[in-house]
Design goal:
Number of helices: 13
Distance between the termini: 25 Å
CATH topology of the largest domain: Rossmann fold
Mean pLDDT: 86
Strand order of the largest sheet: 3-2-1-4-5
Strand content: 5-15%
Low-confidence stretches: 335-347, 352-365
Shape: globular
Structural class: alpha/beta
CATH superfamily of the largest domain: HUPs
Largest sheet: 5 strands, parallel
């Protein structure tokens, strides 16, 4: 049975969760335009953690006006700070996602109660991930985009012709809380640049309430941002290097972009978090020996030579920094103005590979409730 035939089931509620992200929004618009009889029966909801960025709330207001129907705002009734204390100041992580369970799933299941429900989920035909699977037998998930073969480019076209794309896609690849641990390193960096107040609050959770835990396994947010800045610096310098070569400029002073140098990291064996770094293995071994701590271990990382501060004041370094400064000033990693560039930019955001040290598993769909 095609999902559109479910409109004849009068004893069942039809619900669609809007996360403030692109896929769920596009699904609501797609059903409204293509299956109006089904859309007329749809209940829209947003599960608010209270920790979303302002762009999310602005986008939901736009969606509510465009759909011309109410979006039910659900919540756990308490802010994140309350639930953090309930969970003994243990910050949520990929392995301990109490935030999703407490602030997303439970309010949703309270909203539907014990009613028979068909939940319309915005997973696309080109994705390989699972949607939210409830323990309630009364919830039946359906995947209209999968059934109709709707893919990423289709989603962007749907939004481009209607409400547009949420503003945070200028620099972020997902909806969710501003401190979401699934953020990539570069997204933490852009959070610091665009919403410094939210970044500071994220740090405060680490410093004051995290009980020694951090949002990322590799270290504090300062460590994460430092790595992101280094990766960004290398990426832009590599582009400048290649432009200089193509213009027959002298690049003999600079190392090949592929060249690396070692960095020795001291990690906590229990949690894998970075404690400190050294330029030589001997220094790292001496540090561990002096500490006499058996929970520490040493690992080697390869860093790009071209990103070193030695090249900050060179012609290449200054050109690269000027580009970065302009990006920050104009937020020039935003979606471009012409439509073809929009599509490419959106695909660049979603397709961007994670950092080589970014081994977080893909987030499941439950945060999109």
């Amino acid at each position: 049975m095609h999902f559109s035939d479910l409109k004849t089931v009068d004893t069942t509620r039809h619900v669609l969760g809007l996360s403030g992200g692109k896929d769920s929004a596009a699904l609501a618009i797609y059903i409204r335009d293509k299956y109006p009889e089904l859309s007329a029966k749809m209940e829209y909801f947003f599960t608010d953690t209270g920790s979303e960025m302002k762009e999310v709330y602005e986008f939901l207001d736009s969606m509510e006006a465009f759909l011309d129907t109410k979006i039910h705002r659900l919540s756990s009734g308490k802010p994140f700070e309350h639930w953090l204390k309930v969970h003994n100041n243990y910050l949520p992580s990929a392995k301990q996602r109490w935030c999703t369970r407490t602030m997303k799933i439970q309010p949703f299941e309270q909203f539907i109660n014990d009613d028979d429900v068909i939940s319309y989920v915005g997973i696309r035909a080109d994705e390989n991930r699972q949607g939210y699977e409830s323990s309630k037998e009364t919830i039946r998930p359906v995947f209209p985009f999968v059934e109709d073969g709707i893919m990423r480019a289709d989603v962007f076209q749907i939004l481009d012709k209607s409400v547009g794309v949420p503003k945070y896609y200028n620099w972020r690849s997902r909806s969710g809380c501003y401190f979401c641990f699934f953020q990539r390193q570069d997204e933490w960096l852009w959070l610091k640049r665009i919403h410094p107040d939210l970044f500071k609050q994220s740090q405060a959770f680490e410093d004051n309430e995290g009980d020694g835990f951090t949002w990322r396994q590799e270290g504090t947010l300062n460590d994460v941002v430092a790595k992101a800045e280094l990766a960004e610096k290398f990426k832009i310098r590599k582009q400048v290097y290649e432009e200089m070569e193509s213009n027959d400029e002298d690049t003999s002073f600079y190392p090949d972009p592929k060249a690396t140098y070692p960095q020795w990291r001291i990690l906590d064996a229990e949690g894998g978090k970075q404690i400190t770094t050294f330029t030589t293995k001997a220094e790292a071994e001496k540090y561990v020996a002096d500490k006499g701590d058996s929970t520490m271990y040493i690992t080697e990382s390869k860093l790009k030579l071209l990103a070193r501060s030695d090249y900050d004041e060179t012609e290449l370094g200054k050109r690269a920094q000027a580009i970065i400064d302009q990006m920050i000033k104009n937020q020039s990693n935003q979606i471009a103005s012409d439509r073809s560039s929009k599509i490419q930019r959106w695909q660049d955001i979603i397709d961007q590979e994670e950092d080589e040290d970014d081994d977080l598993e893909r987030p499941c769909f439950t945060c999109s409730l």
